[in-house]
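Example record

One chain of 100 residues, shown exactly as stored in the release files.
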Amino acid sequence: MIYITQLIYIIDGQEDVFHQFEDIAIPIILKYNGRLTLRIRPDENSIIEKNIEKPYEIHLVEFDTQQDFDNFKKDEERKNFLHLKEKSIKSSFLIQGIKL
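Predicted structure tokens for this chain:
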């Protein structure tokens, strides 16, 4: 099992475009033995301390294997809509780990 944490930063005014991409990408996770276990949209009141910019969203996702995650990234349907991601996401940080 592998675990992915993603911090997502949106271009101001492109939230609707981002949501369009997510509406397509999130269901595709299931095709590759993945699960979106947590999706958070933090606000200033939920942050105790920070030394980075507050992300628009935080995603926690798990895949059964590295190959499943790699196959998800190569999915043709998802690739057809990457222009929505590129138009809406300023930057993102992807942190990959394993359960200890």
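Notes: The radius of gyration is 14 Å.
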